[in-house]
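Lecture 7 notes: from sequence to structure.

We start with a single chain of 166 residues. Read the sequence below before looking at the structure.
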Amino acid sequence: MVKEQKNLALVRQEVGVITDRMTVEKNTLRAVVSDREVEENRLAEARRQADAATVVVAAIDEGLEAVCSGALAFSEQEDKVKWGENAPQDVEERKRLGARLKPGLPLITKIAAMAARVVKKFLAMERERLREDLAFVSGLRAQLSEAQAETLSSIEDRNGFDKGTK
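Now the structure, written as tokens:
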């Protein structure tokens, strides 16, 4: 009986060691499962952000094309983009296009504003060059024949210049 009690004590001790090891392993497993859940949540969030970024990039791409084609134009008075002269005429198509562009609208507005400023500066430079050319040609007016002077006047009228002052 003493021998059996010693065996029982040894078995209990072994069971205790096994139980302790099992508890440690369960805790390790719980920690791994918890870490995996955290990483899966981070991955899901990263995927949502990537999907959102893809939508925004597509909207910006389409918006840039719309600005370049004249479907959208920047309004300085209202400080926003509006439909341009090449915008779709169909109301439903405008709604669909507007919905697709909405995610990227803040950046599209900035791009359209920059494009409008560049075009405005470029046109101002071109108008100044035309004025200078017109002033030069107008200076030659005294040397022109009557037919040449009439041609010069028609060019001035056609381009909206009033003797080089506009």
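Strands lie at 72-75, 80-83. Keep this in mind for problem set 3.
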